[in-house]
Amino acid sequence: MSKIDALKQRLYDLNAIGSANAIMGWDQQCLMPHGGAPARAAHQGILSRIQHEMLTSDETRRLLEDATAEAESAEDKALVRIVQRDLDLSSKIPAELVEKQSRLGSEGHELWVTARQNNDFASFAPTLEVMFDLAKEQAEYLGYEDHIYSALFDLYEEGAVKADADRMFDGIRGPLVQLVKDIKDSGVQHDDSFLHSDWKDQDQLDFTAALAKTVGFDFNRGRQDTAPHPFCTGWSVGDIRITTRCQEFLGSAIFGTLHEAGHGMYEQGSPMAWDRTPLAGGVSLGVHESQSRTWENIVGRSKAFWTHVLPQLQQAFPATAGVDLDTFYKSVNRVEPSLIRVEADEVTYNLHIMIRFELECALLTNELAVKDLPDAWNAKYEEYLGITPDSDSNGCLQDVHWSGGMVGYFPTYSIGNVLSSQIWKVLANDLGDVDALMAAGNFEPILEWLIDNVYSKGSSLKPGDLIQQVTGKPLGPEDYLDQITTKYRAVYGLS
Amino acid sequence: MSKIDALKQRLYDLNAIGSANAIMGWDQQCLMPHGGAPARAAHQGILSRIQHEMLTSDETRRLLEDATAEAESAEDKALVRIVQRDLDLSSKIPAELVEKQSRLGSEGHELWVTARQNNDFASFAPTLEVMFDLAKEQAEYLGYEDHIYSALFDLYEEGAVKADADRMFDGIRGPLVQLVKDIKDSGVQHDDSFLHSDWKDQDQLDFTAALAKTVGFDFNRGRQDTAPHPFCTGWSVGDIRITTRCQEFLGSAIFGTLHEAGHGMYEQGSPMAWDRTPLAGGVSLGVHESQSRTWENIVGRSKAFWTHVLPQLQQAFPATAGVDLDTFYKSVNRVEPSLIRVEADEVTYNLHIMIRFELECALLTNELAVKDLPDAWNAKYEEYLGITPDSDSNGCLQDVHWSGGMVGYFPTYSIGNVLSSQIWKVLANDLGDVDALMAAGNFEPILEWLIDNVYSKGSSLKPGDLIQQVTGKPLGPEDYLDQITTKYRAVYGLS
């Protein structure tokens, strides 16, 4: 057996443990009875520790060293590079902390679900406090140069530091705030009341599953379920799972599904030969989010898309039958400061992210105490969006991330927004009249382009290298601001 | 930390890996998209090997040795006894064989589903051949005194050897064949046509879930889904999953659910303090089956049960509204030689088991080749039941067991049938008018008695010791033959 193959055998073992943890996480969010929570937390904690111990063992080190000396192809070099990074990062963290964080993440999820249901921040606060304490401990073990935030941010976006996020937000904050103001000042309001009703869950699930299939999500290699907080996960190129949720606003299921289908198609687009190795799957959370936002917003909120889909929607939901295309298009591109991030429009969305980013930084540096989070959260919403949450459930309890211990994650959403426009510009240039394709319901060339240029690369390139290779330049806000300003000035008839 | 606690920490780790494998198996049978099969097989194989390596490691041996020296309470002694047995059995089997069998079991399941759908035994035969070859290899590693079958039988029923199965079947064969003949000769036929229709799946699922709840299955610590072949599994006292299937015969879902709920309540009845240790859960497959058959047959096919439940059924399925209790009772106790084991009536059921037992023995001793299995199967059905399968799908492809590598399992079904009557006799004696309880829908005293006397013992006693303790005698066919003969002579008006 070659040294590379010997390493791969070890990676397959690690992947089996990681996959087991992933399926446990999926099950917990989608199906698990409440009584299963304590054992699930214990199981997930133990599996995380075992995986960590296996990864950082002398055996893995030796296999990696031997394989590195032998690696010649770009693929093999990429593989050993990724494993080396994982091993280096993991080696800095004690196994006990890994188990503790994983276990608390699983327990925290249950507590968060209940706290959000009951609008009871106090019941969740002690756990959240421990969660942030562990995150700080983890960051100190990992080390950082400029700011404690960077240590955690880098886990989700290789190579990124806090200053990168600052620069990105500085680049988009002014123009976005101005655009929101211009839209407000215009006095124009687009009605979407016809999308609000007591739609049947099953009708929503049937329609959105068909929609996911239409854009190219492969149900032979995946499925869709419901979850309180939509997400995408998977444990094989052949088994990628997306979720959605059914609410009285029909757009919630529709755009939630398109978003998760975007993540899902990215995962499904990895070469099958890389299955169960670290080469498969999306390269970073920012690049991942660029693809979910592409399918949710650039495709899913375009007039061309609805030219094709609106008749189907009106057949599935006859109550929407009287609405014409232009009215419908505007209804799904309403801009209005709102409380819930995942329901936010494209223009205000990044403001939600900036709020979370600033609060995370303050919590990590002890400028803010967890007990004061609700007040700080509400003050930021007033500052950035001019509205105050009516409850913690619709405020600082709305997101799943912190409950699972994910701190330093949020800026990747804005990276995704910005990057989606940058990649789409190249795609549209290559494919020609992309609106005509979408209006004809022909999404295959779009998906094929994305597979060729992005999805089939899996994790083999560093995020920055992938962006450079695909778009010919580093990540920057110009294309995003250009696209969003042009679109929304038209939607709101601004000069 | 005490030596017992140190051992438990190790057992929790082993349990986490085993639980991961169990949830993967559940997901495969209930939800997994077809494309997930190759990775699932690989994952399950790897997890089985890792669990095997951890169990048989020097570390576990040392922890077990230390704990054994320290064990004083009955509970601790039971724990070290069980772990010692697992370790001794596992130590005889090479890790590679464990991985191979687990992987093939996962692959085999997919192949079996397809082969059964397409009535294509030939496509499954090569895999089944390897499966039996591996089973023989495993049996030789395990060792046996009298017969190769005993090595595998013991894995499912501690201490049992082939001669025990022979004796049991010899004890019941004659009376059962005679009873089937008497019923046939009587010329009486009970109609159940009103239970056949194109019932909606959702209605069946709603009704049977309510039924499971009625008898005491706790949905806060479990759930019900659908699967091609109903089963029960779990990975915590707090998370036990049952499945059912919806067919045009309404009894399929009803009795399938009651059967699996019986398994499920047994698992849910273990002390929570034993959760995630080998002390929790049913003690052997035979004792387990005694509980599924108790709830399916002794409770679920009694007139008292339907006194309570028939009005609910008739409300949920108005097409059955005209049927009176006596007619209904007889309809669900029809005796008729049939092709499908899991749909078989109580009287003919064990004949299905004897067929499988004899074929397994012949396959293990090379008296029968896998390629000749369909013919041998059909000949046995003609011999025992007087009917010949119309297809392999309704013949030798009907059961899930061999596809997953489970050889030596079937006799535990007959042990369960026999034991259910033996335990019920004691229960009925203790509780007094148990029919009155059931007719009033009061199943709690029955469940409580079973929890006290059987379920709360978990795996702490050897199966034979448990049977002796609960019923005051070893397993024997008398109570079963008495109960079944009395019941069915009445149902068929035989003198």
Question: How would you explain this protein's 3D organization?
Answer:
- The structure is a homodimer of 495-residue chains.
- Chain A has 495 residues and is mainly alpha-helical.
- The first copy, chain A, has two domains: 3-121, no CATH class; 163-491, Neurolysin, domain 3 (Orthogonal Bundle).
- In chain A, 64% of the residues lie in helices and 3% in strands.
- Chain A has helices at 3-30, 37-55, 58-70, 74-91, 95-117, 121-142, 148-156, 162-186, 201-215, 250-268, 285-299, 303-316, 325-331, 346-364, 373-385, 411-431, 434-439, 444-453, 463-471, 478-491, and strands at residues 222-226, 232-236, 239-244.
- A three-stranded mixed beta sheet of chain A has the order 1-3-2.
- The N and C termini of chain A lie far apart (67 Å).
Topology diagram in text:
2 copies of one chain form a homodimer.
Chain A: H1 3-30, H2 37-55, H3 58-70, H4 74-91, H5 95-117, H6 121-142, H7 148-156, H8 162-186, H9 201-215, E1 222-226, E2 232-236, E3 239-244, H10 250-268, H11 285-299, H12 303-316, H13 325-331, H14 346-364, H15 373-385, H16 411-431, H17 434-439, H18 444-453, H19 463-471, H20 478-491
Parallel strand pairs in A: 1-3
Antiparallel strand pairs in A: 2-3
Helix pairs in contact in A: 1-2, 1-3, 2-5, 3-4, 5-6, 6-7, 8-14, 8-20, 9-10, 10-11, 11-16, 12-13, 14-15, 14-16, 16-20
